[in-house]
Amino acid sequence: MTATPPTTPAQTRRALAGVMLTVCLWGGNVVLLKALLVRGHLNAETINLGRFVLAGVVLVGLSVRAHGWPRWDARTWGQVALVGLLGNSLFQACFLTAIRANPAGVAGLVNGIVPVLVVPLGLLLGQRATGRQIGGVTLAFAGLLGLLLGTRQPGMAVTPGGFAWVLAAAGTWALYTLWNRPLTARLGATPFVAFSLALGCVPYVVWALPHLTPPGAVPAWGWAGIILSALGANVVAYVAWANGARVLGAARTSVWNTVAPAVALLLSAGVLHERLPPGVWLAALVILAGAALANWPRSSAAEARAEAAGR
């Protein structure tokens, strides 16, 4: 086995800068999508169709250029398509509905809730969890409970139905995360993501075609927003995140994922002028603190023991 060459300080700095750019793009993408839905006269079907087509073409092109056309058997192609259906058609349908039904700052919590759901779902699939992960999940669930109780108060901007869509989107992406890991490890990150998007979005595209917004009703900045969302959140951010995981390690990269909801919260207040009650801010901070704790990287010695135990 060929040893992985050590990374230089410059490579580490670039990887960290890319990860920080990624969380900013993902957090800002929620606010951008909210603006497109509310102020851009665009429906979810038009937004998703544009994002799928543009991001899919670019990612497949990058994958084929770097790795050639995949030589997978029919079973593998089917697995990629099914997992892609979950992570693209189903997740994006739930995610855009969550954004439309909630303030952008609350919808942005999807990224923070996902790692909280991955741990208990992983336990059901026989995966192990550390005490720190269980403690982080418990803390985050306390924040979720507080936010859920807050939705029942009259006049709240977050309703039980709207918050249910946030949980549905997070749950869908958590399942996608668990099921895509073995495929990513076996097939490679870029080929899997590119072709799972291209295949997984086909049912959504077929369903969305009759529901598209008439092109003449969309302002120029609306189309620019779709392009920015597709290339920024689905292409640039993915490439930067994958490089961060390669250079910094998956464990140390994943903890940054909890910053994206914080970016969405701040941008929703500063750009969209959303005014969330203090109770929502407090619950969101508790959720993000629990997610960060659950994702916090273990020490090198602990990682070595865990790797040895998994062999």
Describe this structure as you would to a colleague:
There is one protein chain. It is built from 14 helices and no strands. The protein is mainly α. The protein has one domain (14-296). It is globular. It starts with 8 loop residues before the first helix and ends with a helix. Pfam families: EamA. InterPro entries: AA-Vitamin_Transporters, EamA_dom, EmrE-like.
Itemize the secondary structure elements and their pairings.
Elements lengths: L8 H30 L5 H24 L6 H28 L2 H4 L2 H15 L6 H20 L9 H28 L1 H12 L1 H7 L11 H29 L1 H5 L4 H12 L7 H18 L4 H11 L1
Helix pairs in contact: 1-10, 1-12, 2-8, 2-10, 3-7, 3-8, 3-9, 5-6, 5-7, 5-13, 6-13, 7-8
Q: Nearest-angstrom radius of gyration?
A: 19 Å
- Give the averaged pLDDT, no decimals: 84
Number of strands: 0
Helix vs. strand class: mainly alpha
Helical content, roughly?
over 70%
Spell the H/E element sequence: HHHHHHHHHHHHHH
Poorly predicted spans: 303-311
Shape descriptor reads globular
Please summarize the sheet with the most strands: none
Give the CA-CA distance, first to last residue: 16 Å
Strand percentage lies at: under 5%
Oligomeric state, counting identical vs distinct chains: single chain
The total of helices stands at 14
The domain count comes to 1
Pfam families: EamA
Main location: membrane
Domain EamA: 17-148, 162-295
InterPro entries: AA-Vitamin_Transporters, EamA_dom, EmrE-like
